[in-house]
Amino acid sequence: MQEKGTISIHTENIFPIIKKFLYSDHEIFLRELVSNAVDATQKIKRLSSLGQFQGELGDLKVQVAFDEKAKTITITDRGLGMTADEIKKYINQIAFSGATEFVEKFKDAKDANELIGKFGLGFYSAFMVADKVEINTLSYQEGAEPARWICDGSTEFEITESDRSDRGTEIILHVNADSEEFLNQHKLQEILDKYCKFLPVPIQFGTKTESVEDGEDEEGKPKYKSVEVDNIINNPNPIWTKSPSELKDEDYIAFYKELYPFSEDPLFWIHLNVDYPFNLTGVLYFPKVKNDMEFQRNKIKLFSRQVFITDEVKDIVPEFLMLLHGVIDSPDIPLNVSRSFLQADSNVKKINNYITKKVADKLSELFNKDRKAFEEKWQDIGLFVKYGMISEDKFYDKAKDFALLGNTKKEFFTLDEYREKVKDVQTDKDGNVVYLYTVDASKQDSFIQSANRKDYDVLDMSSPLDNHFINQLEQKLEKTQLKRVDSDVADKLIKKDDAPAHVLTEDETTTVKSAFEKAISKANYKVEIESLNPDELPVSITQDEFMRRMKDMAQMGGGMSFYGSLPENYKVAVNGNHPLISRIAKADDSEKEKLAKQAFDLALLSQGLLTGSDLTEFVKRSVELI
């Protein structure tokens, strides 16, 4: 048997096009060829189970090997194999019509995966790294003759008889000069680990040395010897292919460690398993988040039938769950998936919605089953929940029943519970329930204590997303306002009708205000004499709630960059009812300014705003006043 011919693509431009379009993803040639070998192996197993193949299956592992001197990479399987006619059908007749139209349509394409996926060119990706490719194969069919196919990257091919006696297929790549980086043990191992780590058929890449027990020494201690064993690079039965009933917590944690060797144990996980209206399996883990949202991204791996595709899953997984870790496997997503496919495919949207629902259901189950344990995990879980509530209304509707608000006393409340807790004391004269919060409890302690003295509760809103979450709560919760505890003095945070009387005369008020303005002499500090409780501090420094919130959001990149460029402005609230202020009002001019400066610096010090030479001067003045 010998035959020569031309591959029926009607053009000589196909191989240069393959090399050009696929160059940026050139390592996927190995994924394509190993995946083909695995498919052929699974098919022979299927035929055997159906009784359509009576022979011995034997060892079904796929082997990958390379020869640096011969400059070859070889992929071998013991799958179905092919006859010469099947080679002509599946290899020579590329499934697209009109090569001229193809060349024109894709001459400016940038997405290599789209090209491969659209035209079934997986096998031809071999020519990205090889200037000659051989197929040596023997079909499982009774009486089949072995065949060899050779092509040098042109449209010419040759089919001859082969001496192969074993069922299956061997693909030999004669690596070109530009691709010799792939003739390297470490490089090939790296690619196999990336794409083939969980393929459903064992993949052997050479051998490795292991220590095995070899009897005992004279003292009765075990002896060991080194032996060469097959280097199987993959785990053919990862946990997402199993039923949750077969698995224990240790199995999930061990698999997590396999995926992320240096990570802390996850908080919990969700096992995905659905077969209608789409097929999807997988395991998603909730990691411990260290308030670094970007660092954790791209940790979910997307597979198609256990073949790794990508870890850029933003179109499949909702944006707010990009912080999760784990795997998703769906045969409904093609191996050579493109971004345009992900954005347009209806199944992808269904998968997105399904994952959102499963996560919400799992969180609700955890909350209802063991609220105390849920509260203990809230510092980590809260980031996901708040992100979801901010970004998706559907998730907000589910999460509002288990989302928690924590206060400075380390107590936790659902949204409904918290409103019930504070409404009687923290409702203003207009009927708005005012939630007070801190972003730094230690720095804002004096303001928190002032609020607590009035029986006000203060929420701890110190997570990275709380600026946005606060705004959302104000939009979603009826007649509710949120104010940072240091945005005004305690008496003014929640406006009531029972403000204390002012004890300073009009002249004294003018005198005190002038003394503080001279002592401060900073344009961005505005002095106001307030009628406050005598037990409050003599001077408090606050920032307007709206301006400070906009500036905080600008720092988070919330589209508020204009506010971020504005100078910091502060309000200096002088407590006109405090004894020290009455003393300043009656003091002589030199004493007035010194006392005013001291009271102002104390207020700065309480907020960590007194630094450098101002702090040094304050210490010296304090010693003098003592």
TrEMBL record:
GO MF terms here are: ATP binding; ATP hydrolysis activity; ATP-dependent protein folding chaperone; unfolded protein binding
Q: What protein family is recorded? A: Belongs to the heat shock protein 90 family.
PROSITE patterns named among the record's database cross-references: HSP90
Tell me which residues bind ATP. Answer: 32, 36, 77, 82, 97-98, 169, 339
Name the UniProt key words of this record, in alphabetical order: ATP-binding, Chaperone, Cytoplasm, Nucleotide-binding, Stress response
What Gene3D superfamilies would the database entry show?
A: 3.30.230.80, 3.40.50.11260, Heat shock protein 90, C-terminal domain, Histidine kinase-like ATPase, C-terminal domain
Q: This chain belongs to which protein, by name?
A: Chaperone protein HtpG
Source species, domain of life: Bacteria
InterPro entries attached to this UniProt entry: HATPase_C_sf, Heat_shock_protein_90_CS, HSP90_C, Hsp90_fam, Hsp90_N, Ribosomal_Su5_D2-typ_SF
Organism, as annotated? Hufsiella arboris
